[in-house]
Amino acid sequence: MKTEPSIRPSDSLRHVRYEIRGQLAHRAHELERLGYEIVSLNIGNPKAFGFRTPETMRLAMIENLAEAEGYCHQKGIFPAREAVVMQQQERGITGITAEEVFIGNGVSELIDLVLRALLNDGDEVLVPSPDYPLWTAAVTLNGGKAVHYPCRPENGFVPDPEEVARLITPRTRAIVIINPNNPTGAVYPRPVLEALARLAERSGLVVFSDEIYDQMTYDGAEFVPMATLVRDTLCATLSGLSKVYRACGYRVGWAVFSGRTHAAADYLKALELLSSLRLCSNVLAQWAVQTALGGYQSLKQLITPGGRLYESRRAVLDAVQNSRFLKLEPPKGAMYGFIGVDTSEMPDFDDQQFALDLLEQKHVLVAPGVSFNVAYRNHFRVTTLPDSAMLRDVFGRIDELLCAYASAPREAGKNNVVDALARFK
């Protein structure tokens, strides 16, 4: 019998990973098709937990529906870009106009575009560890090398600028800063950000500041926009509607360039070329930007005591405090907890095996820590979007599984879980 040749994927994908929507998520979908109810805590998707986009944003799109039937400028519609400029100016960022703003189909698309316009094969980009894994994947896909600078649990997941400096080589082109951080919820102190800004300026690095959670902070944590600190190199601030405005499905993000834009004219032209090749981003949803940024900021009532996000975060903190197995650096921002497991009673603990067992036995889907490009294997990430009651139930299930681990130690080796997950492809 003639063997049909297989169609092989591109070699460029060989080292690209995005475990958040990977094999564990595929297995969760299989279980749902079998009739099981899965609590999916692997993705920060507000709509899945009952959050709604502000009504004023929906109305803005309806009222401009007729204006959204054709292509727009490759950088985006002017009212949206101008609204972004005004927001930046209110934060003390000067010297930018709508010409320095690029609208994209979410920050995800812009991450790919800003790196593609910059990198040559073998160029290095400093990326935090743990990171939002799209940054590492996009660097790799565009021929670069992601060099991870550690944000250690014992340091509150805040980077050490001196440690970052030691990783710079002649091939280093840029540094990525994710603040407030996903997955850890760390909000970086001003002195750390100032040190990273000076480091980037001395070394001529482009600063990519991922600030998608910019207004989502708790208990007085101060968010400092990186563009207010970077002056003598190029700074790209990336943000959007997905999280703060609970509009993930609208797919609207922006990249704002500040600092030494005059020295980056060729780079910005290259980025405009790439923007032109994809014609334009979603026009209809762009009409929500001006209303979102200039209107009532409803997030504030969610992140203060009594607010839904605040109380959910507190439920996670309480659950971890009451567990003999778990530990957590309190997240000061974003919508996640990057939770550690005390391995003194479970020396063979493996985050992927735990995530698989939790899914199969307790019907809870989390993202294992290894998904975020860390070397240690005793962390996992959950979103804090569910209400407090659901989170208390989830952490009850987590503790049940960990109790079972502690009372009946089992081998939880990497090869076991890799083999198991391979069966679910």
Inertia-based shape: globular
Proportion of β residues?
Answer: 5-15%
**N-C termini distance:** 26 Å
Q: What is the CA-atom radius of gyration, in angstroms?
A: 22 Å
Task: Give short descriptive properties of this protein.
425 residues; alpha/beta; Aspartate Aminotransferase, domain 1; Aspartate Aminotransferase, domain 2; 14 helices; 14% strand
What does this molecule look like?
This protein folds into two domains: 12-51 and 301-422, Aspartate Aminotransferase, domain 1; 55-294, 3-Layer(aba) Sandwich (Aspartate Aminotransferase, domain 2). The protein contains 14 helices and 13 strands. The model has no long low-confidence stretch (mean pLDDT 94). α4 packs parallel to α5 and α11 packs parallel to α13. It is globular and about 65 Å long. Helices cover 35% and strands 14% of the residues. The strands form three sheets. The protein has a seven-stranded mixed sheet with strand order 2-8-7-6-5-3-4, with helices on both faces. A four-stranded antiparallel sheet has the order 9-10-13-12. The chain has helices at 23-33, 55-63, 78-90, 106-116, 133-141, 161-165, 190-203, 265-277, 283-286, 289-294, 308-321, 351-362, 388-407, 414-422, and strands at 39-40, 101-104, 124-129, 145-150, 172-178, 206-210, 234-240, 253-259, 326-327, 336-341, 364-365, 367-368, 379-383. It is α/β, with parallel strands linked by helices and 425 residues long.
